[in-house]
Amino acid sequence: MMIGDWLDIGSVDQITPGTARTLPVVGADEIAVFRTQKNEFYALVNKCPHKQGPLSQGIVHDNVVTCPLHNWNISLKTGEALGEDKGCVPIIPMKVDAGRMYLLRSAVVGSRAA
Length: 114
Ligand code: FES
Fold this sequence. Notes:
Blueprint: E1 2-3, E2 6-11, E3 19-23, E4 31-35, E5 41-45, E6 59-61, E7 64-66, E8 73-75, E9 91-92, E10 94-97, E11 100-104
Antiparallel strand pairs: 1-2, 2-11, 3-4, 4-5, 5-9, 6-7, 7-8, 10-11
The structure holds FE2/S2 (inorganic) cluster (FES).
């Protein structure tokens, strides 16, 4: 369901704090939607900037996810690798309103979630 430029991707209850869920996108990279322990929400392309590890399966701490493959730390706010590591994964602007999550439609490459 779409409201204006925002794509409704469902209830916040779908994601346990400290974990992520994935959202397939037709014709584009899968998106990982993260919920932190502090109930902040972030959406990133689900590919580590190192060797494309599935960030959705990483460990979330504060506003950072640790990639499950080689332990790079990626900022959920900026998509950038932290520390000595260099690289950046695209982020997708999102918002939460009345218990539902919305992605900025124009930022979802292909503009259609499956
Ligand atoms: S693929 Fe993520 S740290 Fe290597």
